[in-house]
Specification:
This protein is α+β, with helices and mostly antiparallel strands. It folds into 2 domains: 107 residues, Orthogonal Bundle (Cytochrome Bc1 Complex, Chain D, domain 2); 95 residues, Beta Barrel (OB fold (Dihydrolipoamide Acetyltransferase, E2P)), CATH 2.40.50. Helices cover 34% and strands 22% of the residues. The strands form 2 sheets. A 5-stranded mixed beta barrel has the order 4-5-7-9-8. The chain has a 3-stranded mixed β-sheet with strand order 1-3-2. A hairpin with a 6-residue loop joins β8 and β9. α3 packs across α8 and α7 crosses α8.
Length: 245
């Protein structure tokens, strides 16, 4: 078929199909083969030289922070990028950020291998890690108890003086306990509300009068109890308008 005949055919492709082709790929998970076997092999050498003296050869040092259930509890429902950044900014303990990004990524690959996440055809990069979610074999789950989280919702106070956030979103992990930037708050205005409710602890972190009956962003440590979910606050700030009751 000539190119002259192909051109009209291409022009007839539905716009929805073109949009689908241009859509961003879904976020990958650590089960999708986000590192290579060779990268993990290099990571083992770097780990042995820089990490094993404290974290042991089998990664069980420091209460198994890097392996098994403890590793998953600390990092599941979070981006792999945050694990890479934390590793880079804190390790080795006596010389943080002293390795190259490539070496830290190799160590991340080795940690993934030791946690039985599969290798794949492409090496892990810092940009790719931003689109990789850490999750367990069962798939996505609720954020675990005592994790540092972010929620949004309506700030209210009951007759007993107890502050809560109602119509709140599901908690998501954060690694930044401080207040978000103005741009980040602006982005929250389009975030849909949900039907969760969280009692607030330690409202002394709030400067001035709490923004009662306003939409707020709250960050803090999640404490789940039957019938009484709460957030031990690290920051609270209003965004958008009034939310009423």
């Amino acid at each position: 078929m000539s190119r002259l005949f192909l051109l009209p055919a291409l022009l007839c492709i539905p716009s929805l199909f073109i949009s689908a082709l241009q859509a961003a790929p879904e976020t990958r998970t650590v089960w999708d083969g986000v590192y290579t076997a060779g990268q993990a092999e290099r990571g083992e050498s770097a780990y042995s030289a820089e990490c094993a003296r404290c974290h042991k050869d089998d990664l069980t040092g420091y209460r198994s922070l890097l392996i098994g259930e403890r590793f998953l509890d600390d990092w599941r429902e979070d981006k792999l990028e945050n694990f890479f950044t934390t590793l880079k900014n804190t390790m080795p303990r006596n010389a943080p950020a002293s390795l190259s990004d490539k070496e830290y990524l190799d160590i991340v690959a080795y940690v993934l291998k030791m946690n039985n996440f599969p290798a794949g055809p492409t090496e892990l990069t810092s940009s790719a890690a931003a689109d990789v979610r850490v999750e367990g074999r069962k798939g996505p789950e609720a954020v675990p108890n005592f994790a540092l989280v972010e929620i949004t919702g309506c700030l209210v106070q009951n007759a007993s003086g107890v502050w809560s956030i109602v119509k709140a979103t599901e908690p998501v992990r954060t690694r930044a306990p401080e207040e978000s930037s103005a741009a980040e708050l602006k982005a929250l205005e389009s975030k849909p509300s949900a039907e969760n409710s969280f009692r607030l602890l330690d409202t002394t972190v709030v400067r001035g009068d709490p923004p009662k009956n306003r939409y707020v962003e709250a960050k803090g440590f999640l404490i789940r109890k039957p019938g009484d979910d709460s957030i031990n606050l690290t920051s609270l700030q209003a965004f958008g308008g009034a939310c009423g009751q």
